[in-house]
Every structure is written in structure tokens, then in C-alpha cells.
Amino acid sequence: MSIQIENRGPIVIVRPTGNVSKPVTEELAELLENAMDEGVNLMVFDFSEMTQISSDGLRVVLNAVRRLHNQQGQAAFAAVDVQVRALFEAGGFFQLLEAFDDVEQAIASFDGDRRPAPIKT
């Protein structure tokens, strides 16, 4: 499992790979918190290389999404694997955020009228 962070102007793309399980959730949480502490308020979670996510990993993502909302930010999911999608649906994540087929679509959603609806609380 590794986590890549890519900056594209004001947007941060978070790319976890492999299995996001308890041992790596602290690293993921720290990376997300640091980005938001530095003023990031547009974030795309690219899950194209993530194969599994634990409940701890889900909690980290949810906490980041809520914090972004509290900071008037936006988030979107991209390339969610079928198995991971089932977990996100069961957890109600798609009621909070929109999911896109790829990162480019997610980034484009932040522009103008196509900006995703605010995160629901």
C-alpha cells in the first residue's frame, strides 16, 4: 500500500494503492490533514489502484470529506473499483459525494455550474 499526492493547482489528487487497512490509515489521515491545514479545499480521491479499504480507511476518508465541507471545500471520487463501490454504497458515501469514471471528469466537475453539490451533513 502506498499513497501518492498530486497537486494540480488548487486541486489535490489523493491516490491510495492496494489495500487501505488499519496499519496505513494513520499515514493517510496525516497526509489529508496536512493538505487541508495548508489550505487545500478541492480534493479528488482517485481509487483506480485501490483494491480494498477497511472500516478505518472509510472513516479517514469520511472525516476528510466532512472537514472539507466545514472549510467550504469540495471533494469527488474517481475510478471506484466495483468491490470498493459496494462498500461506499453501503456506507452512504454516494449520498455525500459524486463519483466519476476518472480523475479528469472529477476535476472538471469543480468548474462553474458543474461543481458537485455541497457535501451533505
Query: How many independent structural domains?
Result: 1
- The backbone outline, from C-alpha atoms, is globular
Which CATH top level class fits?
A: Alpha Beta
Average pLDDT rating: 87
CATH-level-4 superfamily name:
STAS domain
**Low-pLDDT windows of residues:** 113-121
Structural class: alpha/beta
Can you offer a commentary on this structure?
There is one protein chain. The protein is α/β, with parallel strands linked by helices and 121 residues long. The chain has one domain (2-114): Transcription Regulator spoIIAA (2-Layer Sandwich), CATH 3.30.750. It is 42% helix and 27% strand. It contains five helices and six strands. The protein has helices at residues 22-37, 55-70, 82-90, 93-96, 103-108; strands spanning 2-8, 11-20, 42-46, 50-53, 74-78, 99-100. Strands 1, 2, 3, 4, 5 and 6 form a six-stranded mixed beta sheet that branches. The chain is globular and about 30 Å long. The N and C termini lie far apart (30 Å).
